[in-house]
Amino acid sequence: MQTSITNTPTRYGWATILLHWLIGILFIGQFALGFIMVRLTSQRTAFELIQLHKSLGFLLLGLITLRIAWRIGNATPPLPASVGALERRTAPLAHLALYAFQIALPLSGWALASVSTLEIPTMPFNLFVMPNLPLAESDAAESFWAAAHWYLAYVGIALVALHVAAALRHHFVLRDSVLTRMITPSSGGE
Hints:
Blueprint: H1 14-37, H2 43-73, H3 85-115, H4 139-174
Helix pairs in contact: 1-2, 1-4, 2-3, 3-4
């Protein structure tokens, strides 16, 4: 049976699944990379990891934008009938919060790089120079955006942890199809 790129009324297609897992892995990897890079004693290694972190941040920003566009253009399979009314109301809000933080986090990092008085160009994967956002450079602005980026990262990782816990609850406690349909693509004939 051939799998479908698009979603069906009961399952996700492979494009949604691929974007979901790629973004999830990159987001968690970015958190770990960010945590490590600011604690290194070697300035050279820290600088290289910061440049990688910025590159991956721009990649994530592009992927999450694509994911949101894909979700708008594709039907989302409804939750199983066994899911209660409260969860039916809160699940879309949780997904909206995840999307908002996945957009806000790289944007806050871009703002941080843009206002830095060090004026180090951002070159995603050494391919091109990413223009700065039209924000004024200052130490105060850099402090603000560094704090915003830090807080957004921790709230974002908490949302991801909640998302993972909910998926595991569906799979192991409720024993419904919520997690498996994000692992196994739909078939074209479904």
